[in-house]
Design goal:
Layout: E1 6-7, H1 11-16, E2 18-20, H2 24-31, E3 34-38, H3 39-43, E4 44-55, H4 61-72, H5 78-90, E5 98-104, E6 108-115, E7 118-125, H6 127-132, H7 139-150, E8 154-160, E9 163-174, H8 178-187, E10 191-195, H9 200-209, E11 219-220, H10 228-237, E12 242-246, H11 252-257, E13 260-264, H12 269-273, E14 277-279, H13 285-301
Parallel strand pairs: 3-10, 3-12, 10-11, 12-13, 13-14
Antiparallel strand pairs: 1-2, 2-14, 4-9, 5-6, 6-7, 7-8, 8-9
The structure holds adenosine-5'-diphosphate and magnesium ion.
Length: 302
């Protein structure tokens, strides 16, 4: 079903690029007191770039890039695209072909890379994924992961044929307007909460950059996609009225569960369909605009 999209406050809503699913949404904007913000693609640009390549001892950097890049090339995740693009730029020739590719939502990717006459079962993702296959990180890779996370960067581990082989560091920039948007949301009486599948160190570094004090109530990290909806439910059970802003497939259930779901117009169709409001320009300041304008529109209607 395609719900009729109304422009909030007509002319002004159109100007601001805010689409609303129905008039009942307006009422909800009055009572929301908490706003859950997805990190990747919402608070940050989601445009990651490959910054660093750290091979384990004895591993060839070019091979590390070829194998990790090949598997990630089959995924649309922002981390995957950064790695595939960065690897392609750094290696001689093209990325080798992949068979039996699997996307492990919120965890990583796996696939068999046909590298010349060799074939390797390759994993790229959270260290936990490698640990599940008994590929523990050697100390030099552990410290590379920690160093990256301390700087607010995302590091993923790469392993193949039963061994951890390297770490790849990607970084995603905070959108220049996110800090201002969060200030505006606070001014509307909303308490911001950062929600992400990424690790706590990265999440805290991003939170600090946008003016959210890190703490267990304000930064909720390492949440698997299927568990994001439980975070919303938990807040609701604690008596909060929850708005959520998200962009990804992994945000859809949580957006649907929240009292007021706001989707980034630059995000996935699934997120947009699950939401009450769409922020066409994909900019967090529009969330504050939408809530302010909806409340005001209601004021003039009543
Ligand atoms: P977010 O909630 O911030 O949008 P995700 O839930 O999509 O992030 O991913 C959580 C974590 O899982 C990432 O930070 C990364 O460590 C790992 N991950 C997910 N997909 C991939 C991938 N394609 N390649 C490498 N790592 C991945
Ligand atoms: Mg996201």
């Amino acid at each position: 079903a395609t719900p009729t999209a109304l422009m909030v406050g007509t002319g002004r809503g159109a100007q601001l690029g805010i689409l609303i699913k129905g008039p009942e949404v307006l009422e909800t904007t009055r009572r929301v007191d908490t706003i859950v913000l997805d990190k990747t693609g919402t608070v940050t640009t989601g445009q990651m770039t490959l910054l660093d390549v750290i091979p384990a001892e004895g591993v060839d950097t070019e091979e590390l890039l070829r194998l990790a890049g090949a598997v990630e090339d089959a995924s649309e995740h922002p981390i995957a695209q950064a790695i595939a693009k960065g690897a392609t730029a750094r290696i001689d020739g093209a990325l080798p072909p992949v068979e039996d590719f699997q996307n492990l939502e919120g965890v990583g990717v796996q696939g068999v890379v046909l590298d010349g006459t060799d074939s390797h079962a390759v994993l790229v993702g959270r260290p936990r994924l490698l640990a599940d296959w008994s590929q523990a990180l050697p100390p030099e890779l552990e410290s590379a992961m920690t160093a990256a996370a301390d700087q607010g960067q995302t590091a993923v581990a790469v392993g193949w044929d039963g061994r951890a082989r390297g770490v790849l560091v990607v970084a995603d920039a905070v959108k220049p307007t996110s800090a201002q948007a969060i200030k505006q949301l606070r001014a509307l009486g909303l308490t911001p909460v950062l929600l992400t599948g990424d690790n706590a160190t990265v999440a805290n570094a991003v939170a600090t950059q946008v003016g959210i004090d890190p703490g267990p109530e304000t930064v909720i990290a390492e949440v698997l996609p299927a568990d994001k909806v439980d975070v919303i439910k938990r807040l609701q059970e604690a008596g909060r009225s929850v708005a959520m802003v998200g962009d990804g497939v992994n945000d859809a259930a949580a957006l649907a569960q929240s009292d007021l779901g706001l989707a980034m117009g630059t995000g996935t169709d699934v997120a947009i369909e699950a939401s009450d409001l769409t922020l066409v320009r994909g900019e967090l300041r529009a969330a504050a605009d939408a809530i302010r304008l909806s409340r005001r529109t209601l004021g003039t209607i009543k």
